[in-house]
Amino acid sequence: MNHIIGIFLISLGALFNLSGCVGLLRFSNVFSKIQAASKSVTLGTTFILIGIAFTEGISVSSTKALLTAGLILFTVPTGAHALARASREYSKTQKESDKGKENETPKT
Amino acid sequence: MIYNVLIYILLVSVFLCIYKMGRGPTPVERAVAVYTLGTIVVALSALFSLKMETDFFLNVSISWALLSFIGTMAIAKFLEGRGLDE
């Protein structure tokens, strides 16, 4: 029974990961891409690790899998937040440098 | 058998991420693709540990999660134009 639940969770997580990667390719905006990739990949990887813990039963391997699942749940949204803020600041600096180039070109 | 199918699904996602990593026009999209790739490789190596029935690949998955998080935070601070210790 635990084996069946584990296989079901792992296949669900693999489908979530695949849909996250398709969203990374198909969305138009940078922020939409960050949102699609980070959310669904977090859920998919956590499902896969919890399914592995179900399949292994109570052992060292399932403890390591649950530890990695907690780590993924904390770190991936933090990294996505930092990347979104970096994208905003980066687009601001790009616009300023473009304006600087436009002002420079008529003078020369 | 079913493990092979799941590993192939995850490999297709990894190749999609590598394609986006090479093609993405802005640096932020490349960084997002690298971080997504790292998170999927964590799941992939955990599935390898289940298929090969060994404990070693779970250590790989823990350290890969930590290292990709630290690298992404460093890349985000660099793109933001700040130093690494601010």
Give keywords.
heterodimer, A: 108 residues, mainly alpha, 3 helices, 0% strand, B: 86 residues, 85% helix
Low-confidence stretches of chain B: none
3D shape of chain B: flat
**Computed Rg of chain B:** 15 Å
Q: How far is the N terminus from the C terminus of chain A?
A: 76 Å
Helix percent band of chain A: over 70%
Look at the helices and sheets of chain A and give the structural class. mainly alpha
> For the residues shown, what is the average pLDDT of chain A?
87
Shape of chain A: elongated
Order of SSEs of chain B:
HHH
Number of strands of chain A: 0
The helical percent of chain B reads over 70%
Description:
The complex is a heterodimer of chains A (108) and B (86). By secondary structure, chain A is mostly helical. Chain A has three helices and no strands. In chain A, helix 1 packs antiparallel against helix 2. The longest helix of chain A has 48 residues. The mean pLDDT of chain A is 87. Chain B has 86 residues and is an all-alpha fold. Chain B has one domain. In chain B, 85% of the residues lie in helices and 0% in strands. In chain B, helix 1 packs antiparallel against helix 2 and helix 2 runs antiparallel to helix 3. The longest helix of chain B has 26 residues. Chain B is flat, with a radius of gyration of 15 Å. The termini of chain B are far apart. In chain B, 41% of the residues are buried. Classes of the chains: A mainly alpha (108), B mainly alpha (86). At the A-B interface, helix 1, helix 2 and helix 3 of A face helix 1, helix 2 and helix 3 of B.
